[in-house]
Amino acid sequence: MSERAARPTRADYVAWRTATTRWRDDDAYGHLNNATYYELFDTAVNAHLYEETGVDVRALAQIGVVAETSCRYFREIGFPEPIEMGMVVDKVGTSSIVYRIGLFQGESDEAAAEGRFVHVYVDNEHGAGNRPVVPMPDVVRAAVEPLLR
Fold it and tell me: Is the pTM of this model over 0.90?
């Protein structure tokens, strides 16, 4: 029998941002829709990259595409309280970055959910369908290395 990883806490994350929940974010069961968790992970990562690099990351010669995502759910969250998103980087490779994003709502020190989000950098010069894996830009590396834990 394998041991389940410990539930993450606020101390596990380095960078923070807050998202406002919307009425439409809840599903028919009255909690945050699963797809919204993934939107929050994407927003946390890309907002950090925009702010820390100071450039439009979509216009770089090498762009990060999502190669893997997953989510562990620990408790329900939803509208109307804001969601705090903590982020940490587990690995920075030559062409990839592995992020973890914890979602917190209310006063709890324990994450309500944690996402794994992997960017792989590809050539952006020739468009979709013809994007070989390439080393990530130095400006991106500089923005994410401080998040390594």
Answer: yes
